[in-house]
Design goal:
121 residues, mainly alpha, Alpha-Beta Plaits, globular
Length: 121
């Protein structure tokens, strides 16, 4: 998948850790660490630009939402809350019955221990 490939390229370039990620039809929910090169906002902006450029060149519908919502999960409680939201999003949208059923969710990788395109910590 184009997005996963680009996420892995940007992850390596900006030297950050992807803790979890859920890919939806028109947006993504990444939970990432701080980067070593620039702010996470800059790294994610580069990711959005690269993905959008490739998406448009393949004549696909717009993938990313225009707005970027940043939330700093400073406590374990914050992280757990965001992870539950992220992993339940495909279920709430009616795309899958259970979070583990989503083929583009780190929940699936964590539950099956299979490796995906993106390195998940």
């Amino acid at each position: 998948m184009c997005f996963e490939h680009e996420l892995e390229i940007v992850r390596r370039r900006y030297q950050f850790v992807v803790l979890r990620d859920v890919l939806m039809p028109e947006h993504t929910h990444p939970l990432v660490s701080e980067t070593r090169i620039a702010s996470p906002a800059v790294a994610l902006q580069v990711l959005k630009q690269q993905t959008s450029t490739k998406w448009k060149s393949a004549n696909q519908a717009q993938f990313r939402q225009r707005r970027y919502y940043n939330f700093n999960a400073r406590s374990e409680e914050n992280r757990s809350e965001k992870l539950r939201y992220m992993h339940r999003n495909p279920v709430v949208r009616g795309l899958v019955a259970e979070p583990e059923d989503s083929p583009w969710s780190s929940c699936r990788q964590c539950s099956t221990r299979l490796r995906g395109t993106v390195e998940i910590e």
